[in-house]
From TrEMBL:
Official protein name in the record: DUF3576 domain-containing protein
Record-linked Pfam families: DUF3576
InterPro entries (alphabetical): DUF3576
Amino acid sequence: MRAVSLIGILLLGSVLTACGGLPKGEQNYPKTEDERDAERFGKVTGEDGIVLFGARTLPRGAEGGTGIGVNTYLWRASLDALSFMPLASADPFGGVIITDWYSPPQNPNERVKVTLYVLDRDLRADGVRAAVFRQVQNGANWQDAAVDPRTGTDLEDAILTRARQMRIAAQNRK
Protein backbone atom coordinates (compact mmCIF):
# COMPACT_ATOMS: atom_id res chain seq x y z
CA MET A 1 0.00 0.00 0.00
CA ARG A 2 2.79 2.38 0.93
CA ALA A 3 4.60 1.68 -2.38
CA VAL A 4 1.43 2.42 -4.34
CA SER A 5 0.95 5.80 -2.64
CA LEU A 6 4.63 6.68 -3.17
CA ILE A 7 4.32 5.92 -6.89
CA GLY A 8 1.12 7.97 -7.03
CA ILE A 9 2.81 10.95 -5.38
CA LEU A 10 5.76 10.73 -7.79
CA LEU A 11 3.45 10.54 -10.81
CA LEU A 12 1.36 13.45 -9.55
CA GLY A 13 4.51 15.50 -8.90
CA SER A 14 5.89 14.82 -12.37
CA VAL A 15 2.56 15.73 -14.00
CA LEU A 16 2.34 18.99 -12.05
CA THR A 17 5.96 19.83 -12.83
CA ALA A 18 5.48 19.12 -16.53
CA CYS A 19 2.33 21.24 -16.77
CA GLY A 20 3.59 24.12 -14.67
CA GLY A 21 7.01 24.26 -16.34
CA LEU A 22 5.80 25.51 -19.71
CA PRO A 23 5.76 29.26 -20.26
CA LYS A 24 2.43 30.80 -21.18
CA GLY A 25 1.81 30.76 -24.90
CA GLU A 26 3.66 27.48 -25.42
CA GLN A 27 0.80 25.42 -24.04
CA ASN A 28 -1.12 25.66 -27.32
CA TYR A 29 -0.44 22.14 -28.54
CA PRO A 30 -0.60 20.38 -30.88
CA LYS A 31 1.39 22.60 -33.23
CA THR A 32 1.04 22.32 -36.97
CA GLU A 33 3.81 20.79 -39.02
CA ASP A 34 4.65 24.22 -40.45
CA GLU A 35 5.00 25.70 -36.93
CA ARG A 36 7.30 22.86 -35.88
CA ASP A 37 9.41 23.29 -39.03
CA ALA A 38 9.62 27.06 -38.49
CA GLU A 39 10.88 26.50 -34.94
CA ARG A 40 13.32 23.83 -36.03
CA PHE A 41 14.66 25.37 -39.22
CA GLY A 42 13.69 29.04 -39.01
CA LYS A 43 11.56 31.17 -41.27
CA VAL A 44 12.78 31.85 -44.77
CA THR A 45 11.12 35.24 -45.18
CA GLY A 46 9.05 37.61 -43.15
CA GLU A 47 8.40 41.21 -42.24
CA ASP A 48 11.36 41.35 -39.86
CA GLY A 49 13.89 40.15 -42.42
CA ILE A 50 15.17 36.66 -42.87
CA VAL A 51 15.38 34.10 -40.10
CA LEU A 52 17.43 30.99 -40.76
CA PHE A 53 18.38 28.34 -38.23
CA GLY A 54 17.12 30.48 -35.37
CA ALA A 55 19.40 33.44 -36.18
CA ARG A 56 17.69 36.66 -37.25
CA THR A 57 19.30 38.74 -39.93
CA LEU A 58 18.43 42.37 -40.40
CA PRO A 59 15.99 43.60 -43.03
CA ARG A 60 17.31 44.97 -46.29
CA GLY A 61 18.82 48.42 -45.87
CA ALA A 62 19.85 47.79 -42.26
CA GLU A 63 23.44 48.42 -41.28
CA GLY A 64 24.59 44.82 -41.24
CA GLY A 65 23.03 43.75 -44.56
CA THR A 66 21.38 40.39 -45.16
CA GLY A 67 23.99 38.58 -47.20
CA ILE A 68 26.28 37.51 -44.38
CA GLY A 69 25.92 36.66 -40.71
CA VAL A 70 28.12 39.45 -39.37
CA ASN A 71 28.55 43.19 -39.85
CA THR A 72 29.34 43.86 -43.50
CA TYR A 73 31.74 46.70 -42.81
CA LEU A 74 33.70 44.75 -40.20
CA TRP A 75 33.88 41.75 -42.54
CA ARG A 76 35.12 43.76 -45.53
CA ALA A 77 37.58 45.74 -43.42
CA SER A 78 38.93 42.48 -41.98
CA LEU A 79 39.47 41.04 -45.44
CA ASP A 80 41.16 44.28 -46.51
CA ALA A 81 43.48 44.26 -43.50
CA LEU A 82 44.50 40.65 -44.12
CA SER A 83 44.65 40.87 -47.92
CA PHE A 84 48.45 40.55 -48.01
CA MET A 85 48.27 37.14 -46.30
CA PRO A 86 47.07 33.90 -47.93
CA LEU A 87 43.65 32.86 -46.62
CA ALA A 88 43.15 29.32 -45.35
CA SER A 89 39.46 29.83 -44.55
CA ALA A 90 36.86 32.61 -44.59
CA ASP A 91 33.37 31.98 -43.20
CA PRO A 92 31.14 35.06 -43.59
CA PHE A 93 28.22 33.40 -41.78
CA GLY A 94 30.24 32.44 -38.71
CA GLY A 95 32.48 35.49 -38.94
CA VAL A 96 35.81 33.63 -38.86
CA ILE A 97 38.83 34.34 -41.05
CA ILE A 98 41.88 32.11 -40.77
CA THR A 99 45.02 32.93 -42.67
CA ASP A 100 47.74 30.55 -43.69
CA TRP A 101 51.29 31.10 -42.47
CA TYR A 102 52.89 34.19 -43.96
CA SER A 103 56.60 34.97 -44.01
CA PRO A 104 57.47 38.62 -44.62
CA PRO A 105 59.96 39.02 -47.49
CA GLN A 106 62.34 41.00 -45.25
CA ASN A 107 62.43 38.20 -42.64
CA PRO A 108 61.96 34.70 -44.16
CA ASN A 109 62.95 32.98 -40.88
CA GLU A 110 59.76 34.20 -39.20
CA ARG A 111 56.14 33.49 -40.05
CA VAL A 112 52.79 34.75 -38.79
CA LYS A 113 49.27 33.37 -38.81
CA VAL A 114 46.05 35.20 -37.83
CA THR A 115 42.65 33.97 -36.74
CA LEU A 116 40.15 36.79 -36.81
CA TYR A 117 36.64 36.72 -35.36
CA VAL A 118 33.92 39.17 -36.36
CA LEU A 119 31.59 38.84 -33.38
CA ASP A 120 28.61 41.08 -34.02
CA ARG A 121 26.13 42.30 -36.60
CA ASP A 122 26.65 45.85 -35.32
CA LEU A 123 29.69 48.02 -35.92
CA ARG A 124 30.97 48.09 -32.34
CA ALA A 125 34.40 48.41 -30.77
CA ASP A 126 34.14 44.88 -29.34
CA GLY A 127 32.84 43.42 -32.60
CA VAL A 128 36.18 42.04 -33.78
CA ARG A 129 38.89 39.93 -32.11
CA ALA A 130 42.25 38.90 -33.51
CA ALA A 131 44.49 36.05 -32.40
CA VAL A 132 48.01 36.34 -33.83
CA PHE A 133 50.45 33.43 -33.85
CA ARG A 134 54.15 33.66 -34.62
CA GLN A 135 56.84 31.09 -35.30
CA VAL A 136 60.58 31.38 -35.90
CA GLN A 137 62.70 28.94 -37.81
CA ASN A 138 65.28 27.02 -35.83
CA GLY A 139 67.21 24.94 -38.34
CA ALA A 140 64.65 22.82 -40.21
CA ASN A 141 61.96 23.23 -37.53
CA TRP A 142 59.49 26.00 -36.79
CA GLN A 143 59.10 26.91 -33.13
CA ASP A 144 56.33 28.94 -31.52
CA ALA A 145 57.46 32.39 -30.45
CA ALA A 146 55.96 35.14 -28.33
CA VAL A 147 53.76 37.74 -29.96
CA ASP A 148 53.54 41.28 -28.64
CA PRO A 149 49.98 41.57 -27.21
CA ARG A 150 49.64 44.96 -28.90
CA THR A 151 49.84 43.27 -32.32
CA GLY A 152 46.31 41.83 -32.07
CA THR A 153 44.95 45.04 -30.58
CA ASP A 154 46.57 47.15 -33.31
CA LEU A 155 45.08 44.88 -35.97
CA GLU A 156 41.63 45.15 -34.37
CA ASP A 157 41.94 48.96 -34.21
CA ALA A 158 42.97 49.14 -37.88
CA ILE A 159 39.96 47.02 -38.86
CA LEU A 160 37.57 49.14 -36.80
CA THR A 161 38.96 52.34 -38.30
CA ARG A 162 38.62 50.99 -41.84
CA ALA A 163 35.08 49.71 -41.14
CA ARG A 164 34.03 53.16 -39.87
CA GLN A 165 35.50 54.77 -42.99
CA MET A 166 33.58 52.34 -45.18
CA ARG A 167 30.32 53.03 -43.33
CA ILE A 168 30.77 56.82 -43.62
CA ALA A 169 31.55 56.49 -47.33
CA ALA A 170 28.42 54.35 -47.85
CA GLN A 171 26.24 56.86 -45.95
CA ASN A 172 27.62 59.74 -48.04
CA ARG A 173 26.71 57.92 -51.25
CA LYS A 174 23.04 57.70 -50.22
